[in-house]
Amino acid sequence: MSRTAFKAPGDAHAERWKALVFIALAQLIVVLDATIVNIALPSAQQDLGISDGDRQWVVTAYALAFGGLLLFGGRMADLWGRKRAFVIGLIGFAAASALGGAATTGTTMFGARALQGVFGALLAPAALSLLAVMFTDAKERARAFGIYGAIAGGGSAVGFILGGVLTEYLDWRWTFFVNIPFAIVAAAGAYVVVREPEGSRNRSPLDIPGVVLSTLGLVSLVYGFTRAESHGWGDTTTISLFGGALVLLLAFVVTEARVKAPLLPLRVVTDRNRGGVYLSLGIAVIAIFGTFLFLTYYLQVVKGYSPVKSGFCFLPMVAGMTVGSTQIGPRLMTRLPAQFLMGSGFLVAAAGMFLLTQLEIGSSYASTVLPALALLGLGMGMTFMPAMSLATLGVEPRDAGVASAMINTSQQVGGAIGTALLNTIAASVTTSYVQDHIASPATRPQQRLVQLQGVVHGYTTAIWFAIGMLVLATLIVLSLVNVGRTGREGAEDEVAVPVVTH
């Protein structure tokens, strides 16, 4: 059938903008949950009697389930239908949140977080692939993905703010319960207004070996980086996890090249444009996540800010992200080649990070941190919008779910690597600094001052590595991605979508 026959009329889905509201709300829930619980963790740990050694599982259980099952979730969205997967994901996420909020033991909490990750892995690729098949007009697509990108990028910072407010003024349990009304509204709204193109499902038999290999491989990889942060890179179990991940993921690639109905069709990732986006964004997220963690600790530990105050300190980044994604990105996307827009965004973010390398104990928030966060948000906002759009550009409708899952997977793996790698660099630099600068004997205030100086020096050193990663991401995107201006000639490569129906 010809491409023309598949094109949906401009008014085929008059409620697509209403649908975007509910899709964006669902994405906000998923992104919020990656950070909102972090602020509440000390209070939850005390109430539930979770040991210091086990508290990491509140974060790790979510990351492992979410990162490990994303490809499977994307494939299920293609198989079941994206609307159905989207609604099921929201309902399941709400139920898991209720379980977490009502938890009376650490084990229940860990299980609830894992369930949130499972349903998040179904929900996230379904949401992004719905946008890919509903918004086919180039300019509308740019606006829609701009809004989606702003939420995807700024949601983490909002999570810190909301987590701090709920924990400080209500109770840590509300960091879970707050998801429930949002999820119900998003599910009900999506059920009514979301329309999915007919005939866009991938009804091929499920690739069971691919599911097993990809899930175990990604879980082993994510857990390896998580364990490296707490137990060191030379730990025997850490090395075993990385070795196992390498073997499993190589076996996955070989399997996908041979089976008739692969979980991840290699055509999705071997396309130079999509492959360049996945790789460059994953590397950029390594830099962003690590820096994000450092700033949180800098504000609370070094500057002594409360969780609520430190959360609000991230608002300039949210503002920059919003402007970059919804104003600058959509306007430039029709005038500049997408690779130049992404590369420029990476470099603007790197400029913000350069300001953070100047941090000292007595640095002013207004003169250093605020402009750095604004530039960081602006740059990533400019990048996320075209990246989210290019991740599904030109892909066959039947592969939209798994292509969407890949962009989420690159972010999850990049986040795990960034947190572990940059934190390890910062910690080792801090240790060396303290050993070299502390006097003997030294008073307690002197020891405290040197310790804080060492912490800040460790952060700024690691941020230099993050800048290097953003430069590398820029080189990758400029070398591999070549799609022109997506508002004009790039429009010819958009996903072909059939007429929209219930």
UniProtKB/TrEMBL annotation:
Compartments where found: Cell membrane
UniProt entry keywords in alphabetical sequence: Cell membrane, Membrane, Transmembrane, Transmembrane helix, Transport
SUPFAM superfamilies: MFS general substrate transporter (SSF103473)
Annotated GO MF terms: transmembrane transporter activity
Domain annotation Major facilitator superfamily (MFS) profile: ranges: 19-485
Domain of life, per lineage: Bacteria
GO cellular component: plasma membrane
Cross-referenced InterPro entries: EmrB-like, MFS, MFS_dom, MFS_trans_sf, Sugar_transporter_CS
PROSITE patterns the record matches: MFS (PS50850), SUGAR_TRANSPORT_1 (PS00216)
Major localization listed first in the record, in broad terms: membrane
Iron listed as a keyword: no
Regions crossing the membrane: 20-41, 56-73, 85-103, 115-135, 147-166, 172-194, 206-225, 237-255, 276-299, 336-356, 368-388, 462-481
Keyword DNA repair belongs to the record: no
Membrane topology note: Multi-pass membrane protein
PANTHER family in alphabetical order: BLR6921 PROTEIN (PTHR42718:SF46), MAJOR FACILITATOR SUPERFAMILY MULTIDRUG TRANSPORTER MFSC (PTHR42718)
Stored NCBIfam families: efflux_EmrB
Protein's name according to its UniProt entry: EmrB/QacA subfamily drug resistance transporter
Organism of provenance: Micromonospora palomenae
Highest classification ranks of the organism: Bacteria, Bacillati, Actinomycetota, Actinomycetes, Micromonosporales
